[in-house]
Write a structure and sequence with these properties.
The protein is α+β, with helices and mostly antiparallel strands and 243 residues long. The protein folds into 2 domains: 112 residues, 2-Layer Sandwich (Translation Initiation Factor IF3); 102 residues, Alpha-Beta Plaits (2-Layer Sandwich). The chain is built from 5 helices and 9 strands. The strands form 2 sheets. Strands 4-5-3-6-8 form a 5-stranded antiparallel beta sheet. The protein has a 4-stranded antiparallel beta sheet with strand order 1-2-9-7.
């Protein structure tokens, strides 16, 4: 009995040790044949956007819902006709929103009263020649559009720019690893692994620009849309072995 009790106590004591041995070792800073260094770096290149996307539409109001929607449809047909007359292809015109909502009048201690209805129809227009965006916007307003948002700039083919940014990211990671290695009195032996950690293909967020017909129609000058420049970035995580 004493022997069995001693064996059971020994087994119970060994269990935590075995469990501890099975716990995975974190990303080690020191390994038998060198030191591991993890570096995260972002590469960057600059491009001029060649695609502009603009949302244009018509907002109408009427006491009756059907009348508001009918007027909106009529004016929107003229807007789409103007787009096609300006040379915008069907594939570059997409309906992004159609809405009909009641308009209320509010008073203290009284339930809201419907005073009419507002109808809206918006299309997303892609300009593959950014320079044409301004004149087309002017044509849209003349044809009946009373709401314009944008533009959002992007690249039609960002793959080459992304590859350039990826190459730059790896070069930056290696340069940083070399810096750390020299500071520690070591050398970069090799790359253990490379992991992509994110990218930006050059698309810029659409700014909160709202141009109403009353403001645009009174201007003599044509609307100008400028592409500017945009950053294309790629981020990588690289693990190096230092010796």
């Amino acid at each position: 009995m004493r022997l069995m009790t001693a064996m059971m106590m020994l087994a119970a004591t060994a269990l935590p040790m075995a469990a501890t041995a099975q716990v995975p070792v974190p990303s080690a800073m020191v390994v038998p044949d060198g030191t591991v260094l993890d570096v995260t770096a972002t590469g960057r290149t600059v491009r001029t956007p060649d695609v502009a996307t603009i949302r244009a539409g018509v907002v109408t109001q009427n006491a009756a819902a059907a009348a508001a929607l009918a007027e909106n449809a009529q004016r929107m047909a003229a807007v789409v006709k103007a787009l096609k007359a300006a040379g915008i292809a069907d594939r570059d015109i997409a309906t992004s929103n159609v809405g009909l909502s009641p308009q209320y009048r509010y008073a203290d201690n009284q339930p809201p009263v419907i005073t009419g209805y507002q109808a809206s129809n918006t299309v997303s227009v892609t300009f593959r020649d950014v320079k044409k965006a301004g004149p087309v916007l002017d044509a849209l307003v003349r044809s009946g559009a009373n709401q314009v948002d944008g533009p959002a700039m992007s690249l039609a083919d960002p793959d080459a720019a992304l590859d350039e940014a990826r190459t730059d990211a790896v070069a930056r990671a290696r340069a940083r690893a070399t810096l750390y290695a020299r500071a520690a009195g070591m050398n970069v032996s090799r790359i253990v692994s490379i992991e992509e950690a994110g990218e930006n293909d050059g698309g810029r967020p659409q700014p909160p620009v709202m141009m109403r017909v009353s403001a645009m129609a009174q201007r003599d000058a044509s609307t100008v849309v400028m592409a500017g420049e945009t950053d294309v970035t790629a981020t990588v995580r690289v693990r190096f072995l230092l010796k």
